[in-house]
Amino acid sequence: MKRNTVYLILVMMAVGLGTLFLMPREASPLIASHECSYCHGVHGAPGPALLKEAQVETLCLTCHGPGGTSTLKADVHTNAARSDYPPFRISCRGCHDPHDNLPNWLGGTNIKLVGSEQDTTGYARITTPNSGIRDVVYESRGTDAGEPSLHSFADNDEDGNTVYDGVCETCHTLTRHHHNNPTGDHSHHVGETCTRCHDHLDGFLR
Amino acid sequence: MTIRSYVPLTLFVILALGAGLMLLPAESTAAEHAKQRMDQLLSPARLSPGPSGILLVTDYCAQAVFMVSRTTVAKVIRSFSINGRPLGIAWARGRIYVGNETTGAVEVYNPAGKRMYTLGGAPGSVKQPSDIAVDASRGLIFVVDGQEKRIRVFGLKGPELTAISGIGAGSLVNPIGIALDQTREEILVSDYGHPADSSDERAPSLVHIFDYDGNKIAEISGSRRFSRPQGLAVEEGHIYLADGMLGQVLVLDRSSGATVATLGEFGTGPGQLQLPLDVVIDPSSKDVYVTNNRAARIELFEGGGQVP
To answer: Which residues of A touch B31 (CB under 8 A)?
Structure first.
């Protein structure tokens, strides 16, 4: 009897572990504006398997680029003409997770698919070129009809937690304004939305 | 006065000029970009045959119209700025018709780049002028209004021809590109369909074919063949359709809808396409020109309009 009980427990543990590690992870609930089949063709998909970054970027731009149907237009982020950075090219998935909006480390939920799952915390984070993996906060604070507050672009450490986690500044270390640390000038156009001048469609260049 | 008496004054003037130069603002990066943008393509979108030997190209990010040579497509002959994001473009009777997505208007320019007038009245009247086609012999301009999801028809001088305008209302889902078969008096419109349903039969990507009165006479389904159809052209019974996702131009049989050939393949190398957005065919040479958006160039497929 005792042996049977141990055997039963072992079987249940094996099934449990198998469920944890072998079963595919449940798909996250998608945001309202994107559905699976926008990008993934289950049967007879005409395109390639979406494995290469260039193809993912192209797929995004078929809707969000020139001639696309979305009203939210964008382009990849590259150096400005007088950039102090070495040449870089941040493509769509550098900042966005096409599958879902993720919770951020401050307890809220990001919008516009900003940040992706970089580790087991599940928080929205970005792998930055110079500063490793960093938290990113980009959320509506109810200030402008669902649009993010200005501090979600450049937090300017308004909350005093010493983390500069706005979506623009979280990477920046060599820009003239709004670094991801206390150095440099954090007074540039405070109170305005960065993309009003640095248009996503122009790669955030001015 | 001696020469020596001029020395302090001269020094003062030089110092003042130097200080003035120091106080002048540095040339902005915007100005640098503006210069670059007028010299080279940044984000070519739609194409149109222009005056003899010239192709007209809208550049969405440079916010400009470029004129390039048909023989050496890398050579920019001239360009002029657009106040907004240009998409559709056409040429007729010495005028350049440009769909301005920012202002929501079809603006008419002379070849020197001077804006003459706007089709359809006030800006905002054409919500998303994604593509334009002209039948100059009949004096008709067809404009894809992507947001209104219909084809607007104008006279060359500007008035909207309300009797036939609104083609496709109710049947177009996400119209993108347009081409005319002037021999048959047919309007061909590419349509993304509903993006979520483009891989099945409910609302697949399509090429719609209407007559000039707006009656739908045929459609070619993209199901399992194309999903992001952009600009298109018609040549001798074949439809040349750029697909932004595939990185190819599909050559479709006009009657059966079958794919009979392809031009290009996805990639960034010579002859490869990444986000192709429009096609123009030279009717005499059969050369095919394609806007290769991500590569920021016009791709030339010599004799590509000659299907075996």
So the answer is: none
Lowest mean pLDDT among A118-132, B186-200, B223-237: B186-200
Whether residue A43 is contained in a domain is answered as: no
Residue A80 clears pLDDT 70, i.e. is over it: yes
Give residues with Cβ within 8 angstroms of A118, minimum separation 6.
Answer: A125, A126, A127, A133
Between positions 89 and 118 of B, the ones with CB within 8 A of A are none
Question: What is the number of structural domains in chain B?
Answer: 1
Write the CB contacts of A67 (distance below 8 Å, at least 6 apart in sequence).
B45, B46, B60, B87, B130, B176, B177, B230, B231, B244, B277, B293
**Residue type (1 letter), B43:** S
Distance from CA of A85 to the nearest CA of B (A): 15
pTM for the full model? 0.83
Reported confidence tier of residue A114, pLDDT bands at 50, 70, 90: very high
Say whether A206 and B266 touch across the interface (CB within 8 A): no
Residue A186 clears pLDDT 60, i.e. is over it: yes
Look at the alpha carbons of B234, B239, B243, B246 in this order and tell me if their dihedral is positive or negative. negative
Count of domains observed in chain A: 1
B244 lies within 8 A of chain A by CB: yes
Residue A177 domain-assigned (yes or no): yes
Mean pLDDT of chain B: 87
Tell me, yes or no, whether B264 lies in a domain.
yes
**Who wins on pLDDT, A134 or B162?**
A134
In a domain, A39, yes or no: no
**B170 assigned to some structural domain:** yes
Say if CB B298 and CB B68 are below 8 A apart.
yes
Interface contacts A/B by beta carbons within 8 Å: 106
Q: Which residues of B touch A201 (CB under 8 A)?
A: 61, 85
Report yes or no on B259 lying in a domain: yes
User: Of B161 and B108, which is predicted with more confidence?
Assistant: B108
Which residues of chain B are within 8 Å of residue A205 when distances are taken between CB atoms? 29, 33
Two tokens, residue B80: 């002029």
DSSP B282: -
* Token pair belonging to A51: 């494995």
Nearest to B246 among A46, A57, A61 (CB): A46
> What's B77's domain CATH number?
2.120.10.30
Span B27-39, mean pLDDT?
Answer: 46
| Terminal CA-CA length for chain A | 76
pLDDT of residue B159: 83
Q: Which helix (H) or strand (E) holds A83?
A: none
Range of the domain at A182: 93-202
Q: How far apart are CA A143 and CA B91, in angstroms?
A: 46
Q: Which residues does chain A have within 8 Å of residue B244's beta carbon, measured at their own beta carbons?
A: 58, 61-62, 65, 67-68
Q: What is the ipTM of this complex?
A: 0.84
pLDDT on residue B73 = 86
The residue segments making up the domain with residue B88 are 41-301
Cross-chain CB nearest to B266 (options A55, A62, A67): A55
In a domain, B5, yes or no: no
